[in-house]
Design brief:
Bound molecules: SN-glycerol-3-phosphate, magnesium ion
Strand content: 15-25%
Number of strands: 9
Structural class: alpha/beta
CATH superfamily: Phosphatidylinositol (PI) phosphodiesterase
Largest sheet: 9 strands, mixed
Number of domains: 1
Protein name: Glycerophosphodiester phosphodiesterase
Order of helices and strands: EHEEHHEHEHEHEHEHEH
CATH class: Alpha Beta
CATH topology: TIM Barrel
Domain GP-PDE: 2-240
Organism: Metabacillus endolithicus
InterPro entries: GP_PDE_dom, PLC-like_Pdiesterase_TIM-brl
């Protein structure tokens, strides 16, 4: 069975990386969510894709230059005019607290956005929160920064990690093992039956992103892909039932 992971929640329908979006993905029947983490000036972990707040909120500036209090005044759904109520940028803690209360081991894929800015103690702080909410079995940490994934494994050898990558990485199943990752999170262009088969033989789960095309979804389900990450979990859940 292919698991459906909602990208930034259900970003095709709701304002990305908000509680509205995460709840929407869950209600649509997704098996989990993917979210992006940055760090505030005062060291708090917040769920937002970009290094700055400019694109997704009514504020401006780098997340790293704003305190949590300053961020809390911003509206993360101001581009969605159908929502009259303000929706804040969630903290990672808020999302983990919510997810920890759901049934059926709802997956939370935490993507570290530390490719451009190196946030101090990001790995340690995240792992502490995962333990606080007893989410060790349901969390997958991914990043394009693979050094950071190694740091996670040094802090907690049991934590599950996955490498994010864009294109034709050579034998990603071999490489993933060198960083201690159990999952491959490639751009979906970088996936084919051969890659899926080799990954399976090497006991690695492949979870491509961001799969919004129905034909691609169907092919992944029929190829027995472990999971995929989509902006449209509702559509993906239906395809999963049909195939
Ligand atoms: O984690 C999968 C995907 O979210 C990676 O790209 O830019 O959407 O965070 P991006
Ligand atoms: Mg992401």
């Amino acid at each position: 069975m292919t698991l459906i992971i909602g990208h930034r929640g259900a970003a095709g329908t709701y304002p990305e990386n908000t509680m509205l979006s995460f709840q929407g993905a869950h209600q649509a029947g997704a098996n989990g969510i993917e979210l992006d983490v940055q760090m505030t000036k005062d060291g708090e972990l917040v769920v937002i894709h970009d290094e700055t707040v400019d694109r997704t909120t009514n504020g401006s500036g780098y997340v790293k230059d704003l305190t949590l209090k300053q961020l809390s005044h911003l509206d993360a759904c101001y581009t969605f005019k159908q929502y009259s109520k303000k929706t804040p940028i969630p903290t990672l803690e808020e999302v983990l607290n919510w997810a920890s209360q759901l049934q059926d081991s709802f997956v939370v894929n935490i993507e570290f956005k530390n490719g451009i800015i190196q946030y101090p103690h990001l790995e340690q702080k995240t792992i502490e929160l995962i333990h606080k909410y007893n989410m060790q079995k349901s969390v997958i940490i991914s990043s394009f920064n693979h050094y950071s994934l190694v740091t996670c494994k040094q802090i907690d050898a049991e934590i599950e990690t996955a490498i994010l990558y864009m294109e034709g990485l050579y034998k990603p199943w071999d490489y993933a093992k060198t960083v201690g990752a159990k999952g491959l999170h490639p751009h979906y262009y970088a996936v084919n039956s051969f890659i899926l088969n080799e990954a399976r033989l090497n006991s690695l789960d492949v979870r491509p992103f961001t799969v919004n095309d129905e034909e691609v979804m169907k092919n992944l389900v029929n190829d027995g892909c472990a999971a995929f990450i989509t902006d449209f979990p509702e559509k993906a859940v239906n395809i999963n039932k049909e195939e």
